[in-house]
Structures are given as structure tokens and as C-alpha cells.
What we know:
This protein is of the alpha+beta class. The protein has helices spanning 2-7, 36-49, 57-64, 72-87; strands at residues 103-107, 124-128, 131-136. The protein folds into two domains: 2-87, no CATH class; 103-136, no CATH class. 31% of the residues lie in helices and 11% in strands. A three-stranded antiparallel beta sheet has the order 1-2-3, with no helix packed on it.
Amino acid sequence: MLDILERAGMSHCKPSSTPVDTHSKLPADGVSVSDPSQYRSLAGALQYLTFTRPDIAYAVQQICLYMHDPREPHLSALKRILRYLQGTLDLGLHLHRTSPADLTVYTDADWAASFSPACTEPLFKILLLKAMFGRTEKYCSG
Length: 142
């Protein structure tokens, strides 16, 4: 996180208590940013960071919607995320390597035999290193 803050020139910025402004919607218009490639680079770095910082996932998703044509309001939203990170450097998920890297998939083996249109989706759960990262459930009514 510190390297992202340094790349943005915000390693000593004032922290924000939230990653997104909950009172207003991010507008699609505004003045174009002066360096769109830096915006894209920082947005991509934040996107990667969401693996260990799921608390910023929504805010990052919102700024990534405008990577093709970033405007000043989008850059302000990106900077707010960075200010939030500055104030929460000690938060995040810690991923540790375990041995061996087990991948376990559980599925409903009889899902195809269901003739109910409400039950046509397969059910599955994927566990990697004993942590669930994918799941779908469909409850059938008949």
C-alpha cells in the first residue's frame, strides 16, 4: 500500500474515514485528467489491492468504470480511496502460504437430473487453502 501512496505522491496525505462519498453519485462528466495513464496505473494497483482489502472493493469498482476516459471527479474519488488507505494501513487480510495448496470443489452431483426450470443452475463451492472463494446456491421450490 505504501508504494501505491508514494506513486500517487500521497504518502503524507490527510486520512479519510471512508473510501467513498456516500452522499453523492460519481458523475460521468468533468474536465479530463492531465495524465490518464497514471490514473489507470493507480486504479489497476487498487484493483489488485482489493484481494487483501475487500473494504475498498466497491469504491475501486466505481473508479474503474471510468478508466477509458477519466475525469477530475474520478481522480478525486481515487484520491479519496488513497486517503482512506493512509488512515487504515494496519487493516487487511493476511494471506499465508500453507503446504500443500489444497483446492477442493463441492458440487451437487445430481443437478442435471432436475426437471424443474427453477433448479437448472449447478450448485458448487470452491475452497482454496480452506477458505471459500466461490459459491453458488439455488433453492428449488418443487
